[in-house]
Amino acid sequence: MEQLIIPMGYHADLNLHDTQVAIKTVKDFFQQTLAQKLNLLRVSAPVFVDPSSGLNDNLNGVERPVSFDIKGQDQPAEIVHSLAKWKRYALKKYGFSHGEGLYTDMVAIRRDEDLDNIHSVYVDQWDWEKIISKEERNMETLISTVRTIYSVLRKTEKYMAVQYDYIEEILPREIAFVSTQELVDMYPELTPKEREYKIVKEKGAVFLMQVGKTLTNGERHDGRAPDYDDWELNGDILVYYPVLDIALELSSMGIRVDEDTLDKQLTEAGCDDRRELPFQKAVLNKELPYTIGGGIGQSRICMFFLRKAHIGEVHVSLWPEEIQEKAAQGGIPLL
């Protein structure tokens, strides 16, 4: 189902040419600052992987990956949904040490995405991953890392507000921390998305913790694959976005599963068949480093800091004719 929000009286403050300049300005500043703060090195990353490797992110388990055959090879290839698992494998293969990390420019195709102002078939994000010790697999490490990333978001907003007069600083000084269970307790009558909106509208910026676990109401706040994030030590960075009056997710991240949590979560999710896949087997056998990592939406970051009404204003994708027509009528110039 496609939905489109047309903000009342919206107009793009930058033309298409100047938007391209601004996109590069945002991306350059943000990624350089992030890499410095988290001690990350940029590495090359795959656009597609072997399906039998277990490296692809299966998201909620229902999305169909784009696959294709390769001349002269027997097995097909799959376009990645994200690099959540590949990064951990790469940290070991590339010889990274404790406290060091990597980041990549990840590009994906999500053919089953419901299209709206912030969802596109084309997905681009900074996928990052960093080696920690087993003792650092705790809430303190998670919260500290979230605060560091949030400080980079605030620095980027300050920088862009200096570069462009129409951009005002709207991010609060501190990010709030709330668990999915606490949200259920606070707003039991609301849907998960309504709860997110309610808390983010109040706080301005929230790290919503423990996404994927089953809550006391018998439901999950949102789907999360069982074989990369530890459901007790993960979450999403959400900010209030006044242009669309929504809670906007900028990042999904977490401390990654160790051998014990992977064992538990595979069983809980009914995914025991994955135990024999190479990546999952390597985690269970303690052959990969313990890590923390996540994905930060590149286009969403650009959309937020440039105050755009549609993600199609900051990247090129394919949109249904109905969305294209409504966007044009509402003063939203899609690329």
TrEMBL record:
Q: What is its EC number?
A: 6.3.1.1
Q: GO MF annotations for this entry?
A: aspartate-ammonia ligase activity
Q: Does the keyword Nucleotidyltransferase apply?
A: no
Q: Which enzyme class, named as a word? A: ligase
- Give the reaction(s) catalysed: L-aspartate + NH4(+) + ATP = L-asparagine + AMP + diphosphate + H(+)
Recorded superkingdom: Bacteria
**Kinase is among the record's keywords:** no
Q: Where in the cell is it found?
A: Cytoplasm
Q: What is its main location?
A: cytoplasm
Q: Which UniProt keywords apply?
A: Amino-acid biosynthesis, Asparagine biosynthesis, ATP-binding, Cytoplasm, Ligase, Nucleotide-binding
Task: Tell me the pathway.
Answer: Amino-acid biosynthesis; L-asparagine biosynthesis; L-asparagine from L-aspartate (ammonia route): step 1/1
Give the Aminoacyl-transfer RNA synthetases class-II family profile domain ranges: 26-320
| Recorded family membership | Belongs to the class-II aminoacyl-tRNA synthetase family. AsnA subfamily.
Q: Which NCBIfam families match?
A: asnA
Do you know which HAMAP family this protein is assigned to?
AsnA
Protein name, please?
Aspartate--ammonia ligase
Query: What species was this sequence derived from?
Result: Blautia ammoniilytica
User: Taxonomically, what lineage is the organism?
Assistant: Bacteria, Bacillati, Bacillota, Clostridia, Lachnospirales
